[in-house]
Design goal:
Blueprint lengths: L2 E5 L4 H13 L3 E6 L7 H8 L6 E4 L5 H8 L5 E6 L6 H6 L1 H22 L3 E7 L23 H19 L4 E7 L1 E3 L18 H9 L5 E4 L11 E2 L1 E3 H16 L7 E6 L5 E2 H12 L5 E4 L14 H7 L7 H20 L1
Parallel strand pairs: 1-2, 1-4, 2-3, 4-5, 5-6, 6-11, 7-10, 8-13
Antiparallel strand pairs: 9-12
Helix pairs in contact: 1-2, 1-8, 5-6, 7-11, 9-11
């Protein structure tokens, strides 16, 4: 059976993508994770939402020797989807070496494996953080990359360059770089979603945890040059992102790609401010959030949102969820977690 390797498969986006792969393809799926920022429970949630089995490997991708040993049992690997990376902007600022070590070494090792085993299709989980404080809004795939605002963003810039150079020396290797904007929301069932092991750094899980009394919400800055003074982001539902990975995989396997290394923005194309996101949550849940205004946070980009026309045209990908849908699904997930904790 043709096999797809998914690194970071127990993570937020990885787990939703595996659900899509199991439900909509016939590939054998092998997930790799070391649970550094995820939980093995994620695999139980995947199984509950799918009808096919999948295989799992627990290994640190930075361990080159062990990684190759673990993967040596699999043949006919036709593609790799590489999610595994540390992703907290604030954590990367406080401990940059950890981010450079993990995010770059893990990529190098999985690319080396792909070369050894002649795996020709590769999808990379990139980020809109590569654009920095872009002068062009909305950003297109051709927008110049500005200086990264965090070590995390810089690791994504470096990773894209590594992949680009790797392609030049391996002419049969084909890759799609997917630049996510701000993934949020949860599976429509409410039974799989973002599950940060540590205190969350992303806005939406902080909002939902604040609503149930587990966290407190601070808006970092209300004096930016935006319509309400708070930062603007392009929030995109995690299931839309998972769907884009299936479409990118088909794009590669069916040889629709026009370049050896293709690049696509994954965003809705709509900028939503932090304060607007809060108002959306309050509207769909009919409850008031208590939050405070804090100082600006180091590493935050002021405003970023996507031009997604290229993904629509080339991948036939169209986002299905709006900001209210995203907040509602995240709230369903938070309530599901609370119910599980009280059992």
């Amino acid at each position: 059976m043709e096999t797809i390797i998914v690194t970071g498969g127990a993570g937020y986006i990885g787990s939703h993508t595996i659900i899509e792969l199991l439900n909509k393809t016939i590939f054998q799926i092998v997930s790799i994770d070391n649970f550094s920022n995820s939980s093995p429970d994620s695999y139980s949630r995947i199984s509950a939402l799918t009808t096919r089995p999948f295989e799992t490997i627990q290994v640190d991708l930075c361990d080159h020797v062990l990684l190759n040993q673990k993967l040596s049992y699999y043949s006919n690997i036709i593609g790799i989807i590489h999610f595994a990376a540390f992703k907290s902007v604030s954590d990367s600022i406080s401990d940059p070496i950890k981010y450079y070590h993990n995010n770059i070494n893990s990529l190098n090792n999985i690319l080396d494996f792909a070369k050894q085993q002649n795996v020709l299709n590769f999808i990379f989980s990139s980020s809109c953080s590569v654009y920095g404080n872009s002068k062009d809004l909305p950003v297109t795939e051709n927008s110049p990359l500005q200086k990264a605002e965090s070590p995390y963003g810089h690791t994504k810039q470096i990773s894209e360059e590594i992949i680009s150079f790797f392609c030049k020396t391996n002419p049969s290797f084909k890759t799609v770089l997917l630049r996510y904007f701000n993934p949020v929301g949860a599976h429509p069932s409410g039974k799989n979603g973002e599950f940060p092991i540590n205190i969350p750094n992303n806005l939406v899980p902080i909002i939902t945890q604040t609503a149930i009394g587990k966290n407190s919400l601070t808006v970092f800055g209300n004096d930016y040059n935006t319509r309400d003074g708070s930062c603007i982001r392009d929030y995109i539902h995690v299931c839309d992102i998972a769907d884009a990975h299936l479409k990118a995989l088909n794009y590669l396997i069916q040889h629709h790609e026009k370049k050896q290394c293709s690049l696509f923005n994954l965003g809705t194309g709509n900028g939503v401010s932090v304060l607007e996101a809060i108002k959306s949550f309050e509207k769909i849940t009919n409850q008031k959030l208590h939050y405070k205004i804090g100082e600006r946070r180091t590493g935050d980009v002021i405003a970023i949102y996507a031009n997604n026309e290229l993904a629509k045209t080339e991948l036939n990908w169209i986002p299905q969820y709006n900001i209210d849908d995203m907040m509602l699904s995240a709230w369903k997930w938070e309530n599901h977690l609370e119910e599980q904790n009280t059992k």
